[in-house]
């Protein structure tokens, strides 16, 4: 899930493929599509501006607003870098004027969701600070203001932050560590806090993250599925521990694994994050990835989940839209590992999510569904009936970015224009079904040919989903993967390198 770009040294690993000179006809189609994406963003941004300015979300059917992320204007801050990337300079400047009014030292609610605030606000501020080439000091000023508030959530005996920070009642006594914490809530903070250290020179933010990383590394091979961490963690003791035996690359754990290779690129002199990624990749590629049996027998992969017991280990063929980041992660990791085999695996994983878009009545992937696993992955033969979905557990579409992010990364890694065609089918279906007079809305059931809209639009629609669609039809040197690394659920953050 999350969003960042890392500026690499010139002698680092090249990630983008070599792109051929495009014909006038191809360029014309690409620019037309890019313009359509930009128009979709402008429509949703205008709806947010008119109906929910300085609130966290606009309600795209009623015109109301929601404040679920401390009430600082998540849909304003989160997509600041998207405004810049799309060349919407007037809108960017106007948003910075509004940013002056936000006091990140004082939330508008009592308990601050540390993880969500970090990825939406701190990532948004730092991303905009970097893509705008450090021309707007207010972005770093606000990032430091927010970072100092979030840093207080790490005031626990073991240094592991509480997932929800009760800032109003935190006095001189230390906070208590908690049990039942979602693993992503502690494992997906590294890029933002490390970048804040780089930008400000204050080492306290990166030092706080190092305490978490050391404990994750210490426990990685001591779980019931060595190499992976389960979805929930006990942070109440001196060392984190696990009673959960549920392992997934979807909700609760996704961004933890995604951050590993990206954070290595931030610290190439240290092998800690890269070694953790390689260990995790070996485990989930053997224990979670599976080839499904589907009509037409496509050679694709899905990431499932696994539950371990005292004497058994069971694969659950549940597929989540949140897990669609995995194709992009494995693709970028293939460059770190110099592995053509991993790149082919990444293509099959990304094509799995493309299949899920192409085979619903609406043309949009459901949030959660089940498919059947091939008995023999080398020789799949479909013998069933229907469209291949064994069960659709959650038929909604929440405007999520994970699938299109991986499609975009595959295009940049391979220079294969078929990824642009796959992405365009996704975009047309999404825009056709989600657009309202105000903005864009979630969908209740994508298994209906005409899904019912739901009165919700989270900030990642502007900050991530439309950004990746836009970059898919941009010139390869706009946010080039030779200079940047994308982190999923994500918008870009450009990291400046300090040696």
Automatic annotation (TrEMBL):
Name any cofactors this protein relies on.
Answer: Ca(2+)
- List the signal peptide residues: none
What SUPFAM superfamilies has UniProt attached to this entry? Seven-hairpin glycosidases
The entry's keywords: Calcium, Disulfide bond, Glycosidase, Hydrolase, Metal-binding
Q: Which cysteines are joined by disulfide bonds?
A: 324-353
Top-tier EC class: hydrolase
Is Disulfide bond a UniProt keyword of this protein? Answer: yes
- Its annotated pathway? Protein modification; protein glycosylation
Which GO BP terms, alphabetically?
carbohydrate metabolic process; ERAD pathway
The superkingdom of the source organism is Eukaryota
Q: What is its EC number?
A: 3.2.1.-
- Provide the family line: Belongs to the glycosyl hydrolase 47 family.
Record's protein name: alpha-1,2-Mannosidase
């Amino acid at each position: 899930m999350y969003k960042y770009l890392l500026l690499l040294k010139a002698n680092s690993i090249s990630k983008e493929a070599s792109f051929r000179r495009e014909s006038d006809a191809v360029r014309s189609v690409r620019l037309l599509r890019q313009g359509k994406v930009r128009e979709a963003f402008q429509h949703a941004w205008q709806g947010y501006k008119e109906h929910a300015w300085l609130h966290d979300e606009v309600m795209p059917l009623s015109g109301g607003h929601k404040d679920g992320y401390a009430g600082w204007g998540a849909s304003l801050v989160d997509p600041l870098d998207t405004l810049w990337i799309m060349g919407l300079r007037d809108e960017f400047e106007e948003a910075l004027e509004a940013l002056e009014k936000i006091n990140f030292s004082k939330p508008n609610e009592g308990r601050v969701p540390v993880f969500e605030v970090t990825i939406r606000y701190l990532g948004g501020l730092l991303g905009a600070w970097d893509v705008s080439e450090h021309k707007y000091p207010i972005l770093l000023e606000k990032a430091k203001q927010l970072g100092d508030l979030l840093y207080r959530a790490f005031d626990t005996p073991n240094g592991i932050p509480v997932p929800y920070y009760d800032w109003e009642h935190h006095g001189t006594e230390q906070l208590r560590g908690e049990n039942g914490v979602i693993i992503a809530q502690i494992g997906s903070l590294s890029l933002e806090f490390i970048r804040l250290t780089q930008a400000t020179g204050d080492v306290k933010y990166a030092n706080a993250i190092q305490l978490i990383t050391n404990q994750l590394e210490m426990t990685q091979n001591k779980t019931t599925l060595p190499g992976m961490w389960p979805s929930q963690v006990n942070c109440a003791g001196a060392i984190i521990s696990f009673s959960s035996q549920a392992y997934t690359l979807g909700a609760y754990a996704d961004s933890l694994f995604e951050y590993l290779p990206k954070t290595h690129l931030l610290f190439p002199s240290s092998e800690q994050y890269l070694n953790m990624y390689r260990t995790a990749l070996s485990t989930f590629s053997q224990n979670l990835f599976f080839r499904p049996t589907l009509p037409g027998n496509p050679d694709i992969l899905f990431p499932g989940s696994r539950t371990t017991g005292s004497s058994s280990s069971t694969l659950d063929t549940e597929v989540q839209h949140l897990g669609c980041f995995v194709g992009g992660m494995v693709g970028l990791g293939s460059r770190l590992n110099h592995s053509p085999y991993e790149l082919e695996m990444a293509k099959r994983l990304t094509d799995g999510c493309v299949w899920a878009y192409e085979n619903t009545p609406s043309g949009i992937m459901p949030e959660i569904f089940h498919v059947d696993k091939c008995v023999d992955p080398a020789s799949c033969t479909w013998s069933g009936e229907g469209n291949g979905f064994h069960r659709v557990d959650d038929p909604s579409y929440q405007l999520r970015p994970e699938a299109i992010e991986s499609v975009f990364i595959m295009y940049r890694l391979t220079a294969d224009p078929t990824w642009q065609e796959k992405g365009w089918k996704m975009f047309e279906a999404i825009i056709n079904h989600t657009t309202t007079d105000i903005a864009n809305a979630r969908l209740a059931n994508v298994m209906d040919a005409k899904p019912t809209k739901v009165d919700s639009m989270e900030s990642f629609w502007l900050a991530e989903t439309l950004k990746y669609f836009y970059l898919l039809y941009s010139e390869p040197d706009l946010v080039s993967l030779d200079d940047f690394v994308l982190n999923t659920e994500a918008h870009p953050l450009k990291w400046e390198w300090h040696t």
